[in-house]
Design brief:
By secondary structure, the chain is of the alpha+beta class. It has 2 helices and 3 strands.
Length: 124
C-alpha cells in the first residue's frame, strides 16, 4: 500500500468539486448583487420622502408617480405602481413598497427575493 507521505494533495475530482462550488457561489452572488442594490435604491427613495415638503397634501396617485420617477432615475425596473401603497390616518401617512424579484439562476431554477419597505411621514 501507499504510505501517508505519498498521499499529499487533492485528486482531480477534488479540484473539480472545489471549482464547481466556487463557480456556483460566484453565480449566485452575481445574480443577487444587482437585486439588492436596486433594493437599497428603493429604500433610499422612500427615506427621501421624509424630507419632501407638502407631501401630506398630495394624493396617493401623485405620491406613487413621484416614487416611480425617482426609481426610474435610479434605473429600478422591478417596482410597479401596484407595488406602492399609501395609507393615511389622522396623524401620519404610511408609504409602503412591497415587491418581489424573480431571477433565473439556471434552467428551471429561480431565485426569488421579497422586499417590503415602508416609511411613516407625519401629516401637517
Amino acid at each position: 500500500m501507499y504510505s501517508i507521505q505519498k498521499q499529499k494533495g487533492m485528486t482531480a475530482v477534488g479540484w473539480v468539486f472545489v471549482f464547481l462550488m466556487i463557480a456556483l457561489i460566484t453565480l449566485v452572488v452575481l445574480k443577487l448583487l444587482p437585486i439588492y442594490l436596486d433594493g437599497f435604491s428603493v429604500q433610499s427613495s422612500l427615506e427621501s420622502l421624509k424630507k419632501e415638503h407638502n407631501l401630506s397634501k398630495k394624493s396617493p396617485h401623485d405620491i406613487q408617480r413621484m416614487i416611480l420617477k425617482r426609481l426610474d432615475i435610479n434605473m429600478v425596473d422591478d417596482v410597479t405602481k401596484d407595488d406602492i401603497y399609501v395609507t393615511r390616518d389622522k396623524s401620519s401617512m404610511t408609504i409602503e413598497v412591497d415587491y418581489e424579484v424573480r431571477e433565473n439562476l439556471a434552467g428551471n431554477l429561480d431565485i426569488v427575493v421579497s422586499f417590503d419597505y415602508s416609511v411613516e411621514v407625519p401629516v401637517n
